[in-house]
Design brief:
This protein has about 160 residues and is mainly β. The protein contains 1 helix and 12 strands. The radius of gyration is 21 Å and the shape is flat.
């Protein structure tokens, strides 16, 4: 597996927290830890910005994707609103995670809990070229559900006014 050098700096308030790290030798995502004071509740349907307690310097040509932890998603409905979140190579601010609770019960996040994972990826810039026609494909303009199970639209009838 290739590796890149990424600079990291801890926030002053997060000196006691571990740096992001791989849980196992085969992990592709580094665990990100919650930099909260004590604990914080995320109620069902709520969205909260959770500090991760560090700043990073990603080399040009790369990005970091912040992703949900599968166990939190499955067991508690905790996921990211902007999944995956993107950290660009020119961003130098405090890394934060936008969490939401899709579950039915409030979820408590405690200081140092693993709340997300960060995967580093190569980023490619596209050069858009305006053209009159696009090249053809077998799929063409077929969209949602075109190549798989057919999705039937749901038609909602307006309720009649009862007087």
């Amino acid at each position: 597996m290739r590796s890149i050098k990424v600079g990291i700096k801890k926030d002053e308030a997060a000196k006691d927290l571990p740096l992001p790290k791989y849980a196992t030798e085969g992990s592709s995502g580094m665990d990100i830890y919650a930099d909260v004071d004590g604990e914080i509740a995320i109620n069902p349907g709520e969205i909260k910005l959770i500090r991760a307690g560090f700043y990073i310097s990603i080399p040009k040509g790369y990005e970091a994707e912040v992703r949900a932890r599968s166990g939190l998603a499955l067991k508690h409905g905790i996921t990211l609103v902007n999944s995956p979140g993107t950290i660009d190579s020119d961003f130098r601010g405090l890394v934060c995670v936008i969490l939401t609770n899709l579950g039915k019960m409030p979820y408590i996040i405690r200081r140092g809990d693993r709340i997300a994972q960060m995967v580093f990826k190569e980023a490619v810039n596209a050069r858009l070229e305006l053209c009159e026609e696009l090249d053809g494909t077998a799929r063409g303009a077929g969209g949602f559900g075109h190549t798989g199970k057919r999705v039937q639209p749901i038609v909602v009838q307006p309720k009649a006014n009862k007087r």
